[in-house]
Every structure is written in structure tokens, then in C-alpha cells.
User: Fold these one by one.
Assistant:
Number 1:
Amino acid sequence: MGLREIESTLPPGFRFYPSDEELVCHYLQKKVMNEILTGGTLVEVDLHIHEPWELPDTARISANEWYFFSFRDRKYATGLRTNRATKTGYWKATGKDRMIYNPNSHVIVGMRKTLVFYQGRAPNGVKTSWVMHEFRLENPNAPPKEDWVLCRVFHKKKSDESYTDYSGTDVDVTDARLLFSIFCSF
């Protein structure tokens, strides 16, 4: 089923904006346990084959963020380092991992790693505006070699850049803010 076919079955105004906790506790947990995921909103993608700008066409739901399941590939057969290289660049981790808690039991159930895409090869890569949040389960009993992750990919824009809205027209963010402030003053 293609992207447009799936979107046509959704109710008007539907947006897929799950919280970090929902991504880990509902979607990723079920994927790892081989449970059936209803809705078909997430697809499996090998992030080493696709460049970030190709991912929106692969996604099931169009928005400003795209969600995928991916298998973490290890850089070395006996090592723990993850291979995050593509044909034209690589994903580089930034900052420290964020803990994801189960909303009911307040137990750590997962981690979120933030990565930025660089074009070229390290250490001379050029930073881009593509960002990925990689979610993984926090389970010390899981095999360390191969595991599923859930990825949220988005293109981070500067506040003065224009962006394309859902209708396909360019919207200047500054103009949009001005219109919003005028609208709110009535």
C-alpha cells in the first residue's frame, strides 16, 4: 500500500506525532517481540542504503518527521560500534543519550540518541540540517550484536528559512508569525 493510499484512509486532520515513550513502549517493544503492529504507519528501512533526503519518499505518512524501523548494523563483527555510514556521508552522534521512562512504572525502558548527518567522510564531513533520533530498548539481557531501533528523521530548518507546508506551497516563517500575531490581536 502506497503513501497516498494510506493517507486517504486516515481521518481528516490526522497527524502522527507520538511521544518518545509511545515510540519505545508501543511501537519498538512490539517490533522486537514480533507482535503485530496495527496501522502500518512505520516501515523497515536500511538507513545505510538510503540518504536522508531519500527517506521522506520511503515513509508511510508524510509530515515534517518520518519514522522507520531499522536494524542496527555493527561496524565490526565482534565489536559494539554501530555502522552509520551511507554512500555519501555518515550519521554522527551528538550529546548524550536521553533516558526514556515507562509512564506507568517510571522504569527506564529505552534510550534516545541524537545524530546529525554529515556529507563526506570523517573527519572532513560537512554538517547538514538532517537530524535523527534513534530509539533503542534498554535491556541488558538483549543480544548486543543485532537489534532493532526506531528512528525519527527530520530536516531541521533555521527560523528564518521558508518551508513547504502540506499543500506544497512555500511559506515564509517570518510572514507566518506576523500573520499569526495579527490574527491573535483581534
Number 2:
Amino acid sequence: VTALNYLVKGHLIKTDLNKVLLDYETEQELDQAIAEGKKNHKGQPVSKYEHLYYSCINSSFCILANISKNCAWLKSTLGQASYVVQTMIELSRKRKETMDLDIDEGRIKISNITTQKMCVFNGKFGGGGFLLSPLGVINDGLLDVSYVNRIISSMGIIDITKQAENGGLQNYYDFYNTYRAKTVKVINKSKRVSKSGEELA
């Protein structure tokens, strides 16, 4: 329906944000459109999974602020690695999502990933000077997609402190997965939720 285009240090990242009420005034209208077999703007059958109305309900917008605010208790023992551990603590508070991943238009397809953390970024510049991907040494125009396929609990954070001390989760954490690609498609298959009586995808 609409898209936000981000120009990130020379690489164009396109993120599609589909909002239910841009096409349908009510949930009932959306259900009726599905029942009637109506097509979306791409000519495909309308699906509830496409409509990410207020998808930022479980987003990462507030994570960075919480990391900076809450990591002080770890700094005396872990130093800079405290930010890595606090990041995982903040992520452990997020609900899990079920995702499908399509890399380079079908070259790699991974279905039903259960994760609290999935990022798509330019590995050379995505970390503001810090290398987020072990493969992103040069700016070759490729995207990096990373995810942790393990549900992180607060008690499980102690398992990753050694990995953080040794140089970062991307190198030493067994559940960290990363790929490089020209195109990345992420499909959120999670169960619909509601907040204040309003249904969200």
C-alpha cells in the first residue's frame, strides 16, 4: 500500500508497511474482501498476514534507549560488552515471532523461524561504526540478515556473557545466524493480537 524508503550510507533499503485502514475501514470489511477473493495492489489475493496495522507494537524503537539506561550495573565487570548483554536482556522481554525468510528471490528459503530478534541491515554501515556482521567488511551493496533462532529468557542471559567477553555474539553464539543477499523478504506469520479492543497484525 505504501512504502518507506531509507537511504542508509549509499544503500537503499525499502520497507513495506501495510496498514489495514488504508484499504478497509473495519476488520469486517477486510474479512469480506478476503471472502470475495479481492486482489491487493500486487494482484494477489488479499490476506490478513499482509496487513501490519501498527506493526511497531513489538518493534525495536525503544530498545536502544533502554539498553543505554539499564546497562550500568554490568559495566564494572564486562566493560563495553555490557551493551551486548543488556541488548539480549531487552530482547528477552519481547514476545516471540514466527517468520519466513526469502533470500535473493528464492535462492534460500527458511520457513517458520521462531525468534525475538531479526535484523536486515547494511553490514558495513549498519552499526554506526561498529561491524554488525562478520561478513560485512566492505561495502559491496549487499544486505545482511541476522536472527537468533533461540528464545531468550532473562535467566538465559548468563549463558551469553562469556561470548560477549570473547568478542561478540556474531562470532561465538551458536544460535546466531547471518546471511548476505541482494534482496531479503521477511514474512511475519505470527498470531494476530489485539490491544485496547483493536485488532492488530
